[in-house]
Amino acid sequence: MSEYDYDVLYLGSGHGAFDGAGPLAATGQKVGVIESDMIGGTCPNYGCNAKITLDAPVVLQRMAERMQGVVSGQIGINWKALVAHKQAVINPLPDAIGGKLTQSGATIIRGHGQFTDAHTIAVDGKSYTAEKIVIATGQRPHRLDIPGTELAHDSRDFMALTELPERIGILGSGYISMEFATMANAAGAAVTVFMRGDTALREFHQPFVKQVMADMTKRGVAFVPNADISALTKKKDGIAIHYGAQQEETVDWVLDATGRIPNADKIGLDAAGVEYTKHGIVVDDHLRTNIPNIYASGDVLAKDQPKLTPTATFESYYLFHLLSGQTTDPINYPAIPTTVYTSPRIAKVGVTPEAAANGNYKLVHNHIPDDWYRQIDEETMGDNILIFDQGHHLVGATEFSEQAEDSINTLLPAVVFHYDQAQMWQLAHIFPSISASAWHKIR
Ligand SMILES: Cc1cc2nc3c(=O)[nH]c(=O)nc-3n(C[C@H](O)[C@H](O)[C@H](O)COP(=O)(O)OP(=O)(O)OC[C@H]3O[C@@H](n4cnc5c(N)ncnc54)[C@H](O)[C@@H]3O)c2cc1C
Ligand SMILES: NC(=O)c1ccc[n+]([C@@H]2O[C@H](COP(=O)([O-])OP(=O)(O)OC[C@H]3O[C@@H](n4cnc5c(N)ncnc54)[C@H](O)[C@@H]3O)[C@@H](O)[C@H]2O)c1
């Protein structure tokens, strides 16, 4: 009989926790999952699933726009109905995820958890002990430290708006800014994006980003480079964004999309002796903190891996295998793919064109509209770059196009498993399909 209440306690119930906690509980270990907000965390409730539901009519609108003549009539977006639809789609997710956890044998504990020592977490005055603890508390929005910052909102607020403001100012030009600017513009808002420097989406191939920005500009999104935002003030007719040398723009609603910060404070890490920095919790190559029985997973980690759902899920799976004794190996990250859900999207996996510029790789450029499959819905923009090593293994791919996320996803196994030519020739894809289209460019 263990001296602890649980074998493993997870603090947080997002992808960094639940993807591995369920399978671990199913092996017979006593698993608890502590959650202070919605079960499932950011991605289903306030992130990916919510956002992609809001994006669906934008895709439809763009397709109808491209195919005018073949189809007739423009697609307008009813924002109120769209937000209600989004809510209806995501409402069942916490129960579905929670149900899966409890069916696997895990216990869900509701409330804010805080370490009181290395084996104990207090939740609303009650203590729970565990042999091992996994911290998976994720991140929360960063807020600009400027006068009037309280007048701004975050991505969660945006997705709950039942009325779309007429004029929206967005601070920052990363993932959230570019995706939400796309959606708000498509739904009829006047959007201005205030950029810190002169590049958006710095980690993506800039020639692709620039083409997407040019298209957004054509559609009415304004970009203010090197904005140097100094304050927000309330005015009779809205909120003034003060920037540059005494310039200002008045909008109805401000979205602060200047990044996210780890939830490593207010969880009692000092009481447990766990090391952390402003970038998050420090772990070794087994996702173990400096305290041997405490691990961490997902967005809260101080690591270079992208803070994305596939990363959190991979880490959670890894901890399942480690904590159930199925591996003792260090974590070995695969190439993590990513997409910005602008319209067209920008997606990538593996070696980037920038990293491949050293001459050791072969780069193959394709213009998406040249592909007959992309002509069926009249795609007029888009390029992709495939990157091969000297042995003609695909090691990276980046694309901007309406279907870039699926195009990159289908190539993922070739990059991760280092397929050789014989293996590539062994694959026969469903035709016609985005997979057949993407793989056609490889062989
Ligand atoms: C608007 C938005 C859109 C996104 N879109 C995408 C996308 O399209 N694709 C993609 O791959 N990624 C996307 N992401 C990122 C993705 O959501 C995260 O990478 C992922 O959710 C990380 O999972 P996690 O478990 O580490 O953290 P989270 O999902 O944030 O889960 C952490 C959980 O811990 C809980 N918690 C924190 N502290 C405590 C405490 N003390 N006690 C109890 N519970 C606590 C929180 O309430 C939360 O539920 C998006 C993020 C945002 C904000
Ligand atoms: N499609 C996806 O996978 C997706 C979508 C949304 C969010 N996410 C995840 O959520 C994270 C957070 O998204 P995000 O867009 O808030 O962050 P981000 O890191 O992508 O972008 C932050 C932006 O804010 C700017 N910025 C930072 N500090 C600033 C300052 N002081 N003044 C002005 N601008 C400043 C940066 O230059 C950058 O343009 C992402 O990094 C990503 O991990 C992923």
From TrEMBL:
| SUPFAM superfamilies, A to Z | FAD/NAD(P)-binding domain (SSF51905), FAD/NAD-linked reductases, dimerisation (C-terminal) domain (SSF55424)
The coiled-coil segments of this chain are: none
Q: List the disulfide bonds.
A: C43-C48
Q: How is the cofactor bound?
A: Binds 1 FAD per subunit.
Instruction: Cite the FAD/NAD(P)-binding domain residue spans from the record.
Output: 6-314
Which Pfam families would you find in this protein's record?
Answer: Pyr_redox_2, Pyr_redox_dim
GO MF terms here are:
nucleotide binding; oxidoreductase activity
Cofactor(s) this protein requires: FAD
| Keyword line | FAD, Flavoprotein, NAD, Nucleotide-binding
Q: Where does FAD bind?
A: K51, G113, D299
Give the Pyridine nucleotide-disulphide oxidoreductase dimerisation domain ranges.
Answer: 336-436
Q: Please give the InterPro entries that the UniProt record associates with this protein.
A: FAD/NAD-bd_sf (IPR036188), FAD/NAD-binding_dom (IPR023753), FAD/NAD-linked_Rdtase_dimer_sf (IPR016156), Pyr_nuc-diS_OxRdtase (IPR001100), Pyr_nucl-diS_OxRdtase_dimer (IPR004099)
Q: Where does NAD(+) bind?
A: G172, S173, G174, Y175, I176, S177, M178, E179, G259
Give the protein family. Answer: Belongs to the class-I pyridine nucleotide-disulfide oxidoreductase family.
Protein name stated in the entry? Glutathione reductase
Q: Provide the species name.
A: Schleiferilactobacillus perolens DSM 12744
Source organism phylogeny: Bacteria, Bacillati, Bacillota, Bacilli, Lactobacillales
